[in-house]
Write a structure and sequence with these properties.
about 100 residues; mainly alpha; elongated; about 85% helix
Length: about 100
């Protein structure tokens, strides 16, 4: 049903432009708001990804950015887990002595 509605919107140039502007505005506000919330406790990254998902429905660059950001975030968390494991191993070795 949504694809049919989107197809109908595509056939009306002014409505299509308004739709894309609306999607861009809402997605941009969500992504920017999420970035502001990242340093605070709460769902900052979730809101950023939600904004990029909204933008990604209309803009290819947003889909690419979202995929890149997900890869970078996964790399960071892998580094963070390895760092914590190394610290715990050093502490355990220090306590054993």
């Amino acid at each position: 049903m949504l694809r049919r509605i989107r197809g109908w919107i595509d056939t009306h140039p002014r409505l299509n432009l308004a739709y894309r502007i609306g999607v861009g505005t809402i997605g941009g506000i969500l992504a920017a708001g999420g970035l502001l919330l990242v340093p605070l406790p709460g769902p900052g990254w979730l809101i950023v990804f939600l904004g990029l998902a909204v933008l990604g429905t209309e803009f290819h660059w947003a889909r690419r950015t979202s995929a890149w950001l997900k890869r970078q975030l996964e790399r960071f968390w892998a580094w963070w887990r390895a760092r914590r494991a190394l610290r715990q191993a050093r502490r355990a070795a220090g306590q054993a002595q």
